Amino acid sequence: MLDDATAAGIAETDQLDWKSRLPPEGTLAQSDLVKDIAAFANSGGGLVVFGITERDTKATGRVDVGDVTESYERTLRRVAVTGIQPPVFGLDIVRAGNEGKRALVVVVPPSVDAPHLIYRGNYFGAPVRNHADTEWMRERQLEALYRIRLDERRNADSALFDLYDELAAGRATSERAWLIIVAQPRLPVTTHHLDRAEMQQVVCDTEPRALGWARRSAGVHPLEAVDRLNPRRGLRRWVLVNEANGSRSWREAWMAVHDSGAVSLAQAIGGHRISGSEMATLPGNRVRSAHIECSVVDVMALLREATSAMGAMSEYAVVLGIEWAGDEPLVVETVDGSGFRFDGTSIPLARYTKVRSAIRLDVDEAAYLEQVCALALDAVNQGGVQNLQTMLQSAR
What we know:
It is built from seven helices and 23 strands.
């Protein structure tokens, strides 16, 4: 593609910038690349391509940018976070070409956080693309972008809670508590929707990931209550239909991957059966903290696999709630050191306040697991439980 672009003399645009040389790693923070990244983020996204010579904005040839190390890539991502406010996350850095014609493509995603500002000494400004040039925004442009940002956040919150309410509607919450989790991208996925085979592969890959984070014996996994082999098409989503019926109906669960990139779960979390020496069925208002953790793990594992398949590596907003309409207060209980039921530190809840979190996908496994731990801990802390009980502790 780069050879074709130079042969055709493709010109720079609002979404494309040719550059011949990479800035040295030690000067990245002070280079014009920071301004270029902010400008593209403020202009709907775009590409900065290193390794292309140009004349009058048109590509004329190829030059070798050398070997791009992992250290250089990490520094590049870091300056997009530390040198720009709000930070620009989710850069895609692509190495292209063979020795003698090596190029580097920096893909800047569209952003809902515009305007992005950069600072130079005591001054700051918001760069923006104007065809092949980078210019500075005027006051009216800044005002308009701030207004758009606030409107987008309101719309995103509305969509998030509309989906939450849809999942909670019609559940028998006066009989047993229901756990609702919705994870929604800040920018809806428009590039790729999963077909049936891809969705089946996502689910197949999700199970071992989830069980690697929280062992099967630690609690009740909603993945084990749904039909993992036969995802069904719903309203702009793939649904993992509940198959916990009859004597297993106490573990009812419904999971879905939406065309927008959202992932959701509705699960009966109260009235679960417990095994071992205390073999019993819990009342509908009592919830085991380990079961909440397993639900968080399954959703976040499904999110990790689905977003990888869909190419939706943006930031996600997550909301988690427990819906209970019975007369007794909701109780989140744990186990003591011997594994027996323990609610000595539990806080009886007249109402469970929804937990909200922002989850980044453009991080490695360890950093992602830290976010999963934080979400699970927030979910059980509200009920007075101070510690995680599953293997999630190994990520800390």
